[in-house]
Amino acid sequence: MTTAAVQAVGLSVRRGGGLGLPGRRDRLDVLRDCGFRIPRGAVCGLVGPNGAGKSALLATVAGLIAPSSGTLELWGRPVGDEAHRARLAYVAQNRSLYPQFSVRRLLRLGRDLNPCWQSEAAEEVLEAARIPLRARVGSLSGGHRTLLSLALARGKAADLLLLDEPLADLDPLARRRTMGLLLADVADRGATLVLSSHVLADLEESIDHLLLLDQGRVRLAGALPELLAAHRLLDAIELPARRAAAAHPVDAAQSAGAPFSGASDTPAVVESRGSGPARSVLVRLHHSAEASGAGTAAGEPPTLEELVLAYLRRPDAPGWISPGMRPLTADAPEGIGA
């Protein structure tokens, strides 16, 4: 099987807690026992609430933060390998640039530092927004600074692009145009794109893989078709009348016709909401149903937003990694706990 662009096994990162108490060096776990793999050529959306660890994960993959434990590999080699520098581009959330430089001078610096620099690719990002090359970086708006950061990343012609909230400062037209350029790089060069966002609507039409973090842990990961097909949303109309008011969501899910028998095949309940006619249950199908495509399962696959929100609302629900994003090591678990 092709080596993954990114693979993590038991990855944890601890950083200073900043409580400021004399004589104490407080540490916080910002990433906890994370395991996943991102295939080459994937467009992976990294999502989660504030403080989930998204920025820390991207910075760790970029080699700016050292893992506290576990392993992290890029293209089969440990993170931080000198050969990685030329192959990845990272755009941080704070968009650190040289404010006194002109746009032209900054692009020239990018060319001088990167042997595979593609001037046309960088300038294409700026031309659409009509950003003048003579403008001082410090005079640019937040959206234009974001586009300049993306132009520098795209000009590097990297095999792996790590983008932290790249769409947050852009207007709708700039978002669509910029994503089109980035997706073209994935299609034309086989690049791997990992981008974080708080807004699922910004990602849903573009990504083909998802990585959901919450409280530093991986809660959900996989190719979108696998994730959605592995879950079913059942409502009261689909539940037989005798079980519609069942005390246990698993009973309701089984009575709705989920293709399982026996305790080992019981679907995992992610969330049960409401009561009576308004009640709904989101279940994750058993792996045997995954293998068969779960074509006869009751209910409908959830939308991406319904799926993500259900896992975030229920932090006690067991997390899940689809087969395509599970780490390929002998001792790595096939699934993950909450």
TrEMBL record:
SUPFAM superfamilies reported in the protein's UniProt record: P-loop containing nucleoside triphosphate hydrolases (SSF52540)
Protein's UniProt keywords contain Zinc-finger: no
Keywords: ATP-binding, Nucleotide-binding, Transport
Pfam families in alphabetical order: ABC_tran (PF00005)
Domain ABC transporter residue range list: 6-240
Source organism superkingdom: Bacteria
Protein name per UniProt: ABC transporter ATP-binding protein
Single GO molecular function: ATP hydrolysis activity
InterPro entries attached to this UniProt entry: AAA+_ATPase, ABC_transporter-like_ATP-bd, ABC_Transporter_VariousFunc, P-loop_NTPase
Region (Disordered): 255-274
